[in-house]
Amino acid sequence: MAKRNTLFIRIVEGKNLPIKDITGSSDPYCIVRIDNEAIIRTATIWKTLSPFWGEEYNVHLPPSFHTISFHVLDEDSLSRDDVIGKVSINKEALAAKPQGLDGWVNLTEIDPDEEVQGEIHLQISVLGDIPRILRCQVLEARDLAKKDRNGASDPFVRVRYNSKTHESAVIKKSCYPRWNESFEFELDDAPLDTPLSVEVWDWDLVSKNDFLGKVLFNIHRLQSAHQEEGWFRLVPDKPKHSQHEGTLGSLRLQLRLRDETVLPSGHYQPLTELLCQSVGPHLNVSTKSMPLLSLSSVAWVA
Predict the structure, then answer these.
(1) Is this model's pTM higher than 0.85 or not?
(2) CA of 170: how far to CAs of 39, 121, 175, 176, 227, in Å?
(3) 283 vs 157, higher pLDDT
(4) Per-position b or e across 26-58, b if 16+ CB within 10 A of its CB
(5) What is the CA radius of gyration of the chain?
(6) In Å, how far are 59, 104, 107, 177 from 87, measured between CA atoms?
(7) Which fold has domain 132-260?
(8) What is the mean pLDDT of residues 111-140?
(9) Domain residue limits, the chain
(10) Which CATH architecture has domain 4-130?
């Protein structure tokens, strides 16, 4: 599974936009397109020729992408929205600016029959290769098989994905254990058909641990849904035991995909200044030398 380049985009504001309404103003909004696909629509800012949006997004770029464009339109409630103008930036222009883009850009025409005027302020940074993270939260189980002489089990969970394994704590003497533990896996190095396996085992001090059941997840399907949560029926490890399927109990899980992103350090400057102010001016802490490695923005895909 290939890693994907990601853009941080901030649609800041516009100015000198044309009058499109009889009120002598406009109701501008912005649509962002990757090639021909619209992926973002900002809020509409009513009755202004100098809108401020201040909206931020992380945009994942497909390998085949050529151009990202920003279309500014005037919203009309009774008729078709009016076109104001656009800004188009191709892949080559982004590659030529590894430090990113930050500034005012003139709008160009969308409709050749319409005059165009105005500018928009954009901030764009290439964030590079962003790994996708699968988080599996193991919440609880119910109706587990009784494997011990005391009429219960000592269950724990083993989560496997792409040769990596995590294990939960052992809950003693329970067929209704609660774990509420989370485990994370990076998806980018695994084939699309690699399943996530969540297994429940009964821990034994002296003898071999007993297998209680498992749940398998199709990661490719999860990428479309981004999240799955609920009770999942445990199934046996081998098909020959299929007659017992449905009697092994159930496991409550939450699965989510997310992209972990560390933005360019300049985006954290207001936060670092605020943190230093809260510590106190008497400490004389310099925000310019403050390390930013611990500050990160997590963009959930959901």
Answers:
(1) no
(2) 45, 55, 12, 12, 26
(3) 157
(4) bbbbbbbbbeeeeeeebebbeeebebebeeeeb
(5) 27
(6) 17, 10, 5, 56
(7) Immunoglobulin-like (2.60.40)
(8) 86
(9) 4-130, 132-260, 262-300
(10) Sandwich (2.60)
